[in-house]
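Continuing the series of single-chain predictions for the mutant panel. This is the parent chain; the variants come on the following pages.
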Amino acid sequence: MIYINEWLPNPVGKDASGEFAEIFNSGKEAVNLSGWYLKATAKTKFVLSGEIRPGGFLVFKKPELKISLGNTDGQLFLYNVTGKQVDYQQFLGSAPEGKSFSRTLQDFSEKNLGGQAFFFSEPTPGVQNKFLEKTALMANNYQTGVPLNKNLGFGDFFGLLLGSSVVLTGLIFFVVKKHEDLSKLFFGRDEEVWS
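Parent structure:
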């Protein structure tokens, strides 16, 4: 599988000479990229060519990269030769100068793709990304495509409702038993006092 691995939308200095985009091949075979393309906006695309080896990184630098990478609310799409979108990444807000938007996930197995995360970090074109997760989290960068608050399913909602009901019932029972007038009202008898 081919994935977007990193891109530098706001380099130090001029964007025209410093921007780059990088893809990664997580598969066990080389992939011919003829006809694949990258898009950053609906209007322009950069058609790829050549081959990417298994476990390899391929970097496209300006001016070869024929698309401009947005410095604010940036997005990058990767399409295969049939025009199917195979990867999409985005960030919100402004890209910090000199930091690339980099994939943190190193295990590209199918089961882990839902947990992929991108953070702004030091650029590492052509090699495995390096980052300090603690620093990225302190900068309030979060995983892309993953809600901060999980949506509750039926089972989650039912469990929450049942748990709340049990706690509330126990609390009401405790208050009624401890309050003499309420105890007489609900239970119709005087409580014996143990000494």
